[in-house]
Specification:
- The chain is built from two helices and two strands; from the N terminus they run ββαα.
- The chain is an alpha+beta fold.
- The protein is elongated.
Length: about 100
């Protein structure tokens, strides 16, 4: 019987106390990995929407208050954090180049 190698996947949510959550699998699709895929897609879509909302808010002619700018900066940071987490997770799953 052929052995399957273990795959470690960084999940798009954190555990208790903000600790990163990982899934260790044999590389086959599971309910948890498919859920993670859906959440990643939603996070990317949300980031795209937030960027489009932020564009006019930071335009030279925009007259926003400090609180409004802080609010949009907070949403952008949240979205960027999610997208960077997704990129890291996907990067870890790319196989190394063969020599």
């Amino acid at each position: 019987m052929a052995e399957r190698s273990a795959h470690v996947r960084l999940l798009p949510w954190s555990g208790p106390e903000g600790k990163r959550a990982h899934l260790i699998t044999d590389g086959t699709a599971s309910m948890l990995s498919l859920l993670a895929d859906r959440i990643e897609s939603q996070q990317i879509e949300t980031a795209s929407v937030i960027v489009e909302l932020a564009r006019p808010m930071v335009a030279p002619e925009a007259k926003l208050t400090t609180d409004e700018l802080r609010w949009i900066a907070g949403r952008l940071i949240e979205s960027l954090t999610d997208v960077l987490n997704i990129a890291e997770s996907r990067g870890e799953r790319i196989p190394e180049y063969e020599e």
